[in-house]
Design brief:
Helices cover about 65% and strands about 0% of the residues. The protein is mostly helical. The chain is elongated and about 50 Å long. The protein starts with about 25 loop residues before the first helix and ends with a helix.
Length: about 110
């Protein structure tokens, strides 16, 4: 059986929005994992090849990273980046850049107090 692969035409159809304020780091991480898994499943169901489905799912995961508006959100952002790097959803270089962004976010929050 030959499977037809389909390139994403509108990745926005698979993108989730960042989580609203949550109570724990674990909730943020679970939300990001769920968003990625659901985006991947939707892409596969639409006939995307595995590589393209992974690309769509990874983009969705990036889009749901917490907005760094609180200390908890920055900690959650860091945890989500660690999970993404550990699972191979992002490369080490991107993880370093995102971690640096989180450092800047935490510093900005400290200055705002």
């Amino acid at each position: 059986m030959t499977r037809t692969t389909k390139k994403p035409e509108r990745i926005s159809d698979f993108i989730y929005t960042p989580a609203e304020r949550m109570e724990t780091v674990e909730e943020y991480v679970a939300y990001s994992i769920k968003a990625r898994e659901e985006a991947h499943a939707e892409a596969v169901a639409e006939g995307f090849g595995e590589k393209d489905a992974d690309e769509v799912a990874n983009m969705s995961w990036r889009c749901v990273l917490p907005i760094m508006s609180s200390r908890l959100a920055v900690q959650s952002f860091i945890a989500c980046v660690a999970v993404g790097a550990a699972r191979g959803w992002i490369k080490a270089e991107e993880a370093r850049g995102l971690s640096y962004t989180a450092q800047l976010g935490m510093a900005a929050l400290r200055e705002a107090r």
